[in-house]
Design goal:
It contains twelve helices and no strands. By secondary structure, the protein is an all-alpha fold. The chain folds into two domains: 97 residues, no CATH class; 125 residues, no CATH class.
């Protein structure tokens, strides 16, 4: 006995496949959808850096200028726009590399500087300011406390940069002038330390005062020389960085040559198609010569 198929054994209904436009106008309108969507992808402009609307306008201007006919010419025109857009990035990128390199001059100097010397232009200026402050305080009748850096400069000159002398007990400084907190120094205390050191060494106060003043003058001159040297080295480094580093220059040159070759090939192919469409004679082969570093 032949089994009758149950209702749930029936073959599934066929799902109609989507059909494209049937008219010539409709087919013409959608024939480049895949190409157009790929060419105008937002990935062409760099997200957050380049404007997608500017890219769209740029691409449209290139395509309008080329006036392609047909899918292949349209795709090649889009390719020309993309390559030209990417070539436009090179000059701003080069300028940015140079700008960043010049901004990093002081950081690079700090890494190269010796441990004892100033590691930046600001530090060199602060050393000069401290020496000037200490020198002025030696003659000032005021009571304003010195900065820590100025106090350090004064004590260093007073004891001839000798730790043993700094720790030597003298009148009014039982543990030596080196034991005084740097933020406690003011002009009267400076003069008291000079007088005490003069008595401990058996010289006149005026002689010790003159010796300390000369020592601070030398510190000022040394600090000025350091500041000029640091400023000169930094400025020279900035002038030397008017070009990208050699490694980056090679990379830029190779990248530009690569894009230029692709652009030339796309334009050549496009011109060949257009010439053929216009009935012009087309050479069987073309030779392109290019070189890159």
């Amino acid at each position: 006995m032949t089994r009758q198929p149950a209702s749930n054994d029936r073959a599934p209904a066929r799902v109609p496949r989507p059909r494209g436009p049937k008219t010539a106008a409709g087919r013409a309108a959608v024939r480049l959808n895949a190409v157009r969507h790929g060419i105008t992808s937002p990935q062409v402009p760099i997200p957050g850096v380049e404007d997608a609307g500017e890219w769209q306008a740029f691409r449209q201007a290139i395509v309008d200028d080329i006036a392609p006919v047909g899918a292949v010419e349209e795709a090649l025109a889009g390719r020309v726009a993309e390559l030209t857009w990417r070539l436009r990035r090179i000059a701003p990128y080069e300028a940015e590399v140079i700008a960043v390199g010049r901004e990093r001059v002081e950081d690079d100097y700090a890494r190269r500087a010796s441990f004892a010397g100033p590691r930046s232009l600001r530090e060199a200026q602060e050393m000069l300011d401290a020496a000037l402050e200490a020198r002025a305080a030696l003659e000032s009748p005021g009571l304003e406390p010195l900065s820590d850096a100025a106090a350090h400069e004064f004590v260093s000159v007073l004891v001839d940069a000798d730790d043993a002398t700094a720790a030597m007990p003298i009148e009014g400084f039982d543990h030596g002038v080196g034991a005084v907190d740097e933020d406690a120094w003011n002009p009267p205390l400076l003069l008291a330390a000079v007088a005490a050191m003069a008595k401990a060494r058996g010289v006149a106060v005026e002689t010790m005062l003159l010796r300390v003043a000369r020592g601070l003058d030398e510190r000022v001159d040394e600090a000025r020389d350091r500041l000029d040297r640091v400023a000169g080295e930094i400025e020279r480094s900035r002038r030397e960085r008017l070009l990208p580093p050699e490694r980056v220059m090679v990379q830029i040159s190779k990248y530009e040559a690569h894009l230029s070759r692709q652009l030339t090939q796309a334009l050549t192919h496009l011109e060949t198609l257009q010439a053929r469409r216009h009935g012009d004679r087309v050479p069987l082969a073309r030779l392109h010569v290019s070189a890159s570093a």
